[in-house]
Specification:
Blueprint lengths: L3 H29 L6 H8 L3 H8 L2 H26 L7 H18 L1 H12 L2 H9 L4 H10 L5 H23 L7 H16 L3 H15 L14
Helix pairs in contact: 1-2, 1-4, 4-7, 5-6, 5-10, 5-11, 6-9, 7-9, 9-10, 10-11
Organism: Alkalibaculum sporogenes
Pfam families: TetR_N
GO biological process, one term: regulation of DNA-templated transcription
């Protein structure tokens, strides 16, 4: 008969294995990139078998999506911390979405290994297809519905979300390959413009969002360092 301590021991072992897999994958994706990192590499580094990786993450692309989500969560936490320093604890979620796009662009501009990772995820449709499996965030759509009376239903939200994910990944990929000759900052503005136009906002509202987000982003002191650590 299993005791409570036995069950806890198994749970702790499982959590430890999952954490090791994530840690190893993060480090390898940073150093080698997504394409050149194999499940064998991750298995060896984390000291687990490949069946364990499949149990927790299904496949390499889902694992990479989890790593990407962790980076995005760290960015959101860092932004929230920075906002308190400039007396802006509460900022419109729509504006903050544009701020995040600017931060992502600045990371791609300054950190080649982050740029490579994101480019490879875009090229392999990891960001799009993984979102089909994990669902998508609805907060921004609800905020837009409430503030701008856009009245999206569930189907419209999904159509907008997945078409935008596909389009923005394409922009990032083609920019990195040199087919779009512009700076990262300019590209992030265009990404936001495409997003908000898709939502149905007029240009005046979009310009206001871009201007407000630029002021906030310029006051953010956030970098992405080794192994995608947000500092």
């Amino acid at each position: 008969m299993n005791t409570g301590s036995d069950i806890m021991s198994v749970q702790n072992k499982d959590n430890s294995s999952k954490s090791r897999i994530l840690k190893s994958a993060t480090e390898l994706f940073y150093e080698k990139g997504y394409n050149d990192t194999s499940l064998d590499d991750i298995s060896k580094s984390a000291n687990v078998n490949k069946a364990m990786i499949a149990y927790y993450f299904k496949n390499k692309s889902q694992l990479a999506y989890e790593v990407c989500n962790n980076i995005n969560t760290d960015i959101k936490k860092a932004l929230a911390k920075q906002l308190t320093k400039i007396d802006l604890e509460v900022v419109d979620n729509i504006i903050m979405t544009a701020v995040e796009y600017k931060i992502f662009a600045s990371f791609r501009k300054r950190n080649p290994k982050y740029r490579r990772f994101i480019k490879e995820l875009c090229k392999d449709n990891v960001l799009l297809l993984s979102q089909v499996n994990t669902g998508f965030g609805k907060d921004i759509y609800h905020d837009l519905n409430k503030k701008h009376n856009l009245n999206f239903d569930e189907i419209e939200m999904k159509i907008n979300h997945y078409s935008l994910t596909s389009s923005l990944c394409g922009l990032i990929l083609m920019h990195d390959l040199g087919f779009i000759d512009c700076g990262h900052d300019y590209l992030s503005d265009k990404e936001c413009t495409i997003m908000f136009r898709t939502f149905g906002l007029d240009q005046a509202n979009i310009d206001n969002i871009l201007e407000d987000s630029k002021k906030i982003a310029n006051n953010m002191e956030i970098e992405i360092s080794n192994n995608f650590k947000v500092i």
